[in-house]
Design goal:
There is one protein chain. The chain contains four helices and 14 strands. It has helices at 5-18, 113-117, 187-194, 254-266; strands spanning 38-39, 48-52, 58-64, 69-72, 84-87, 102-111, 128-132, 146-147, 159-164, 178-185, 203-207, 221-226, 229-238, 248-253. A hairpin with a 2-residue loop joins strand 12 and strand 13 (229-238).
Length: 268
Amino acid sequence: MPFTIFSITCLALVASALGCGVPAIKPQTIGSRIVNGQNAISGSWPWQVSLQLPSGFHFCGGSLINQNWVLTAAQCAVMVGSHRVILGEHNRGPHPDPTSFQVMITLQKHIHYKYFSSSMATFNNDIALLKLSAPVTFTPRISPVCLAPSNTSILPGTRCFTTGWGQTTTTTSPLILQQTVVPIISPAVCRQIWSQSRITDTMICAGASGSSSCQGDSGGPLVCESSGVWTLVGSVSWERSTCDPRFPAVYASISQLRSWIDKTISSN
């Protein structure tokens, strides 16, 4: 039976009990339209991760999925033991509050086994898991997101959100975490836009509504909410090189890759 919006509502109570997907600081989700996005409320997307070079340069996003693991894009090419995993960050300005975020490094990196074999040029199976060197300490600003079950089916038009510090123009990157609402687009419509061969079953499309993810957002979250609980349904993968908000962005589908996620975590 497909995992419908009704069953997502039923899952909300279970997810809340497990402690995932419920921000202590509520996000502002009314009127939001990170190209053409808006500043997020500080701490309101507590699973958002910034992947950074040792210099502090942000190059990709990610999502905290439990105390030990972060989910991101395979294309982000994280270097174990070198690149930094920053949790709880909001303003990447020159004088951040050091008590508000945690800095981790990765102990292990696991890239989906079909990412390379399926041709990196298509970004198929564009997902990676990062095991952190130490467990994260959960705070009101740092907590995990729920993962979409493998039988999830989201209705086209569903309003979901993506967040990140990616470029807001082709030359400008923000200091403050950006958010934007993006409607889910059916695979059939997405294939009409991007061509039949480029959109696979491991992808989900959203956007084409005046806002878009862009360079630097890769690996970051696409989340949908039901009854106050947020579920990770996608991970930012690719879009037009110009980040044209008239075209949908493409995300790795968490539900289609859930089996690999669970097996990788359980065996490591």
